Amino acid sequence: QVRLVESGGGLVQAGGSLRLSCATSATIFSRSAMGWYRQAPGKQRESVARIFSGGSTNYVDSVKGRFTISRDISKNTVYLQMNSLKPEDTAVYYCNAVDYESGFANYWGQGTQVTVSS
Length: 118
Known about the structure:
seven-stranded mixed beta sheet, 1 helix
């Protein structure tokens, strides 16, 4: 069973920072594109940031310049550093893995709440 274990959410004031972490198995980490999605109340889940096996990244426009996705291969962990947080960043954030070697199967973490107060 594939597990993605998230941590790092919480409550922060606008302008503050948080770092999310997502750990998984070495097998999944090595053959997947990893990413972060978020879902705010009443809205659809959206892709926030992704990092691919070669290290390239992409971001949704609303977080460019504020969020940074990175990974530690030795720890099989992907991070999302979130700076200059805004109230509109409030959402449940989910870690995602797309496994290239299993028909692009999608795996999800349990979600972690990020709340930004104004």
